[in-house]
Specification:
Blueprint: H1 11-27, E1 32-33, H2 34-41, H3 45-57, E2 61-63, E3 69-72, H4 75-104, E4 107-114, E5 117-124, E6 139-141, H5 146-153, H6 157-164, H7 180-193, E7 196-199, E8 206-214, E9 220-229, H8 238-256
Antiparallel strand pairs: 1-3, 2-3, 4-5, 4-9, 5-6, 7-8, 8-9
Length: about 260
Amino acid sequence: MAIADLDRQPDSVSSVLKVFGILQALGEEREIGITELAQRVLMSKSTVYRFLQTMKSLGYVSQEGESEKYSLTLKLFELGAKALQNIDLIRISDVQMRVLSNLTRETIHLGSLDEDSIVYIHKIDSMYNLRMYSRVGRRNPLYSTAIGKVLLAWREADEAQRILSGVVFHRSTRRTVADAAALMPELVKVREQGFGEDNEEQEDGLRCVAVPIFDRFGVVIAGLSISFPTIRFAEESKNDYVAMLHEAARNISRQIGYREYPF
């Protein structure tokens, strides 16, 4: 789309296009002044200045001292690196998730933390007709899901409390925990035993077991889970399912670069 067409776009669309036009121009130079930048993107200096100040406040652009020279920071690189990390994680995890699927015939999820929720970034559907409904990209609470508990349990207590501080605890079922104070002791247990559980806390009739996946620095970056309708879940088989999950998560963590998987 040509810059000249921006004025014919709705204001919100036009603003987004202008921002990316400025970012692209900044990416072509180590540093650049407002006058030259305005000429390149065919905008007024005042408009370019306004966008630059917003991007500067968000950490995407830096200014050299008191000069008019601006340049990109590494924040966009960090965002891209996170996306690449997820792509690698999904690609590596897919093999192990299909092994789990063949062994259990149940729904297998891979989930990561996004602000104060979990997001499913990959899944393998159950082979049974009666199955858990979910989709990639769906968000679920941290406090009532097995993956959510795993993602919180390997964080320092003050960080977990900070993440939960703005969360409204909705009682999805009678088993859902009421607040962060009730959840924190459970997170200690999750870390000690090496897995998290959802015992009909998110949805009646559904059980879920999850384990952590570690990156090369030993940080938990995702959770891997198996979900069951309660009519197919046998308590005496839970340890077997946990062992399968640990084997898969250990293999994934090792391929990412972490060889000290603790379970």
